[in-house]
Write a structure and sequence with these properties.
It catalyses: 1-(5-phospho-beta-D-ribosyl)-ATP + diphosphate = 5-phospho-alpha-D-ribose 1-diphosphate + ATP. It is an enzyme of class 2 (transferase). Belongs to the ATP phosphoribosyltransferase family. Short subfamily. This protein is of the alpha/beta class and about 220 residues long. It is about 30% helix and about 30% strand. It contains 7 helices and 11 strands. The strands form 2 sheets. A 6-stranded mixed beta sheet has the order 2-3-1-4-11-5, sandwiched between helices. It starts with 6 loop residues before the first strand and ends with a helix. The structure holds adenosine-5'-triphosphate and 1-O-pyrophosphono-5-O-phosphono-alpha-D-ribofuranose. The site of 1-O-pyrophosphono-5-O-phosphono-alpha-D-ribofuranose has 12 residues, from β9 and α5.
Length: about 220
């Protein structure tokens, strides 16, 4: 499957997929049966539109596939978009799904100064080193980031660092691991993303899909 009029949509395969699929279906895109078969090892799926396929990848990789033009459309959280900050990605529609926020957290029994405005240097475990670095730099604080891919909440109790920057939704993961939120950084939702070059060369087609997603959100 690769011709110049093929449209590839990159979707995140993790927790957000079950919120994404009703939207994909509401704009009239239905993947082939293998998409819902847990035994299937397929990674690219045909749809009811002969020129449209769906790939299912890690949420960070959605941004990379779209930025490099390997996929023309996708769905990604603004956590991922801000972390990469790819100029090639345009994010025109807030899909109003994947609601959570990014926060700084630390052990509830941490004795030192927990007022961020008093810090000059912090060591932080996070999946978002660029975003974390920029956030603290804006406040004149140098952040030394230790990149993890998940389970950040383990880092303080095992002595990797004292603080983490991670996503929070219900707060249950922080609580279960003896951490408390110190500062909220940013609200997060998932966005429809488009490769900017493709938007120029295939503007009627891609703007048409952008409009359909907008209408689906407005109607929901
Ligand atoms: N607890 C949460 N509640 C709501 N949305 C979340 C939550 N955690 C993450 N998200 C959103 O979903 C996206 C994907 O989540 P996450 O990075 O945790 O992936 P995952 O489901 O663990 O899968 P993978 O690591 O394989 O990509 C995040 O980028 C974020 O925008
Ligand atoms: O506030 P809560 O409702 O507990 O949600 C927050 C958790 O959800 C995400 O992790 P996820 O479950 O996706 O696992 P991960 O550690 O692999 O990213 C995030 O990284 C937090 O750990």
């Amino acid at each position: 499957m690769s011709s110049s009029d093929e449209l590839v949509i990159a979707l995140p395969k993790g927790r957000i997929l079950k919120e994404v699929m009703p939207l994909i279906r509401s704009v009239g895109i239905e993947p082939e049966a293998a998409f819902d078969d847990p035994e299937s090892r397929l990674l690219q799926f045909r749809t009811n539109h002969p020129n449209i396929s769906i790939i299912r990848v890690r949420s960070f990789d959605v941004a990379t596939f779209v930025a490099f033009g390997a996929a023309q459309l996708g769905v990604a959280g603004n956590d991922v978009l801000l972390e990469f900050d790819y100029p090639e990605i345009y994010a025109p529609v807030d899909l109003d799904i994947g609601h959570c926020y990014i926060a700084v957290a630390q052990p509830e029994n941490l004795e030192d100064d927990s007022d961020p405005s008093h810090w000059s240097h912090v060591r932080i475990a996070t999946k978002y080193p660029n975003l974390t670095h920029k956030y603290f730099a804006a406040a004149g604080i140098q952040a030394e980031c230790i990149k993890l891919s998940g389970a950040m909440e383990l880092a303080p109790s095992l002595g990797l660092c004292r603080r983490i920057v991670d996503l929070v939704s219900s707060g249950a993961t922080l609580r279960a691991n003896g951490l408390v939120e110190v500062e909220k950084i940013l609200d997060i939702t998932s966005r429809l993303v488009v490769n900017r070059a493709a938007l120029k060369t295939r503007s009627i087609e891609l703007n048409g899909w952008v409009e359909k997603f907008r209408e689906a959100i407005d109607a929901s």
